[in-house]
């Protein structure tokens, strides 16, 4: 087992990793930017090293400084969290060459699945259904038009170097395809330094259902069921639940089998997620693989009774899959709401700033993964996620009622947050009935006036 | 100076006495005033310049003004901070002589130390000019981004 791990991330996931390390008796080294000096995870780590100025490009993305810190700190392994360098094959490679274990898949597996178009090809090869689309990169506008004609509108133009909901454009007809094709390439070049795009048929109002897989370095791989992440706003997930309301035992078996087959075909190790779209007829199509631990890993943990981050560390240290993980079965129902520093009444405008008072809910079946505290200032340089609230219940409706109850206790002042927005969704009939798809949030936001009033609790500040 | 200005300055002096402040300095639109309380507790006006004096004359006045009583260590020392993460070395080799010592004059281009990162010896330049007042970092010890290495006057 490792003696010391460097946490190459920040915020709630850095805290998550440090907690897992502490429980495993592993010493921790936190690297942080000047904006994160007062961060909770920096305080809780055994050691910490400042690696740069606030902007990510000057700190959390600086591979040389992170490796230098790793050397000074004499660490055995690095956990990359999610985002930042978590899916950067070059970073994984640098770790490999410095003999520091990268807690995740190999750089080759990461490369194979990180290129979205290559991942589609791997899926096709493994006999896993993919969304109808181009056979590879679409080079010219006329090719795009030809392919779109064949697969039928509407279509999605996707950047091969994209991911996480970024670098995607929709086109409903030929004229819009022409402009979308060029602007998608231009955007991709700017955002990812790679303008290559491919085409996919746009599946109308699908469910986004992803499968968690875990594999050790001894060839043993299992899936830990699905998460439904259809509740999205602008392609960013906001609410996730496990299991999916549309899942059947038979469909889970089929999709789980496909997920494992695909991940095995590229020699995947450690934790990863295979994303599918499921249409109204319960046909599923592979869209992409995330070669990292995900934000919403928490709901799988609650339902399958495991600690995925600890398992990641164990796997990286060469241990076989834990018994309880290898034989995990789903019990209970879990929901996660991502609490962001955004104002839902003002089109989710980001609200960085000082949290004057923070009180988080508790009680049975409530889990909070958060790095914020009273007096903490949310910096403007990074994503707006300040907390994840997860509720567990015996049934789906129990989990929803528990979330509604807990959100009504969640008291954060000084900045606006999306707590009232989530509370309103928990009361929404369509959501409660499990009748939602990826178009749900847009419909809700455009059609009705959401009741964003918070309960009138006032705590002494 | 106008009577109104004297009144204002007197108010400031009284406030300083009342709150036991020893230095008051203000600079605004070509006007600069520094008041410093001497040992007897009386405020000593240091080179007050008339308000709204044309810039040229103001400079001339500043230059010809007799040296002010030595400013309290109020001139903040500049810091040379680490631009990277690594190990701080004062000399190019273990038995070599340090690049700089207290009292050494440096310019922006002067190499002041080595920071070793991943087996690469990086020469760090002062990027400021002045005289080394203090060596803050410890030889052979790790330094992080932004950590103070030297203080420069």
Explain the overall architecture:
The complex is a heterodimer of chains A (461) and B (153). Chain A has 461 residues and is of the alpha+beta class. Chain A has three domains: 4-103, Rossmann fold; 132-201, Dna Ligase, domain 1 (2-Layer Sandwich); 207-447, D-amino Acid Aminotransferase, Chain A, domain 1 (2-Layer Sandwich), CATH 3.30.470.20. Helices cover 34% and strands 27% of the residues of chain A. Chain A has helices at residues 11-23, 40-44, 63-73, 89-97, 107-114, 116-125, 141-151, 174-192, 249-265, 297-304, 308-316, 323-326, 396-409, 419-426, 429-433, 440-447; strands at 4-7, 27-33, 47-52, 77-79, 101-102, 155-163, 166-171, 197-201, 207-215, 221-233, 236-242, 270-278, 284-290, 333-340, 342-343, 349-350, 353-354, 357-359, 366-370, 377-378, 385-393, 411-413. In chain A, strands 13-12-9-10-11-14-21-19 form an eight-stranded antiparallel sheet, with helices on both faces. A five-stranded parallel sheet of chain A has the order 3-2-1-4-5. A three-stranded antiparallel sheet of chain A has the order 7-6-8. In chain A, a hairpin with a 2-residue loop joins strand 6 and strand 7. In chain A, helix 4 packs antiparallel against helix 5 and helix 7 packs across helix 8. The longest helix of chain A is centred in the middle third of the chain and has 19 residues, at 174-192. Chain A is globular, with a radius of gyration of 22 Å. Chain A starts with a strand and ends in a 14-residue tail after the last helix. Chain B is α+β, with helices and mostly antiparallel strands and 153 residues long. Chain B has two domains: 3-64, no CATH class; 78-152, OB fold (Dihydrolipoamide Acetyltransferase, E2P). Helices cover 17% and strands 35% of the residues of chain B. Chain B contains two helices and eleven strands. Chain B has helices spanning 3-18, 55-64; strands spanning 23-28, 31-37, 43-46, 78-81, 86-89, 105-106, 111-117, 120-125, 130-135, 142-143, 148-152. In chain B, strands 4-11-9-6 form a four-stranded antiparallel sheet, with no helix packed on it. Chain B has a four-stranded antiparallel sheet with strand order 8-7-5-10, with no helix packed on it. In chain B, strand 2 and strand 3 form a beta hairpin. The model of chain B is unreliable at 40-69 (pLDDT under 50). The chains are: A alpha+beta (461), B alpha+beta (153). The A-B interface holds A 34, 49-53, 59, 64-65, 67-69, 71-72 and B 84-87, 117-118, 142, 144-147.
């Amino acid at each position: 087992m490792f003696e010391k791990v460097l946490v190459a991330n920040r915020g709630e996931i850095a805290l998550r990793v440090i907690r897992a390390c502490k429980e495993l008796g592993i010493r921790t080294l936190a690297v942080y930017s000047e904006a994160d000096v007062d961060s909770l995870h920096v305080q809780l780590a055994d050691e910490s090293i400042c690696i740069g100025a606030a902007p990510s490009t000057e700190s959390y993305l600086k591979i040389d400084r992170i490796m230098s810190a790793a050397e000074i700190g004499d660490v055995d392994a690095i956990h990359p969290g999610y985002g930042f360098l978590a899916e950067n094959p070059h970073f994984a490679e640098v770790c490999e060459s410095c003999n520091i274990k990268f807690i995740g898949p190999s750089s080759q597996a990461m490369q194979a699945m990180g290129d979205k178009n290559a991942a589609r090809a791997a899926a096709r090869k493994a006999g896993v259904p993919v969304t109808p689309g181009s056979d590879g990169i679409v080079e010219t506008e006329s090719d795009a038009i030809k392919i779109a004609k064949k697969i039928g509108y509407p279509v999605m133009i996707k950047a091969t170097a994209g991911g996480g909901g970024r670098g995607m454009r929709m086109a409903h007809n030929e004229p819009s395809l022409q402009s979308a094709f060029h602007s998608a390439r231009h955007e991709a070049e700017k955002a990812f330094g790679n303008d290559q795009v491919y085409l996919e048929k746009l599946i109308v109002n699908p469910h986004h259902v992803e499968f968690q897989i875990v594999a050790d370095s001894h060839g043993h791989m299992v899936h830990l069921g699905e998460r439904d992440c259809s509740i999205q706003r602008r392609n960013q997930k906001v609410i996730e639940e496990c299991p999916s309301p549309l899942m059947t035992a038979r469909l889970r078996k089929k999709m789980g089998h496909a997920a494992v087959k695909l991940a095995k075909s590229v020699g995947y190790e450690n934790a990863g997620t295979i994303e599918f779209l499921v249409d109204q007829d319960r046909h599923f199509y592979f869209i992409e693989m995330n070669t990292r631990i995900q934000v919403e890993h928490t709901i799988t943990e609650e339902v399958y009774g495991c600690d995925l981050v600890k398992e990641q560390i164990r796997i990286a240290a060469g241990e076989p899959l834990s018994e309880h993980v290898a034989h995990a079965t789903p019990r209970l129902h879990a929901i996660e709401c991502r609490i962001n520093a955004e104002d839902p009444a003002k089109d989710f405008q980001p609200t960085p700033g000082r949290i004057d008072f923070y009180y988080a809910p508790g009680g049975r079946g409530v889990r909070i993964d958060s790095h914020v505290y009273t007096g903490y200032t949310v910096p403007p340089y990074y994503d707006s996620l300040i907390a994840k609230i997860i509720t567990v219940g015996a049934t789906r409706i129990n989990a929803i009622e528990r979330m509604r109850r807990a959100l009504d206790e969640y008291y954060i002042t000084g900045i606006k947050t999306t707590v009232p927005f989530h509370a309103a969704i928990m009361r929404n009939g369509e959501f409660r009935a499990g009748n939602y798809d990826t178009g749900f949030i847009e419909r809700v936001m455009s059609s009705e006036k959401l009741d964003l009033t918070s309960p009138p609790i006032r705590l002494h500040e | 100076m106008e009577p109104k200005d004297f009144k204002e300055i007197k108010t400031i002096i009284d406030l300083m006495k009342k709150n036991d402040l020893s230095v008051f300095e203000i600079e605004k639109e070509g006007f600069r005033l520094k008041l410093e309380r001497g040992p007897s507790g009386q405020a000593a006006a240091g080179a007050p310049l008339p308000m709204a004096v044309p810039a040229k004359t103001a400079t001339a006045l500043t230059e010809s003004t007799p040296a002010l009583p030595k400013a309290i260590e109020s001139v903040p020392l500049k810091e040379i901070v680490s631009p990277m993460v690594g190990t701080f070395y004062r000399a190019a080799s273990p038995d070599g002589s340090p690049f700089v010592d207290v009292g050494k004059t440096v310019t922006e281009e002067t190499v002041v130390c080595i920071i070793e990162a991943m087996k690469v010896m990086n020469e760090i330049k002062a990027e400021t000019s002045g005289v080394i007042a203090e060596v803050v970092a410890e030889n052979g010890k790790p330094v992080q981004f932004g950590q103070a290495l030297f203080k420069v006057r």
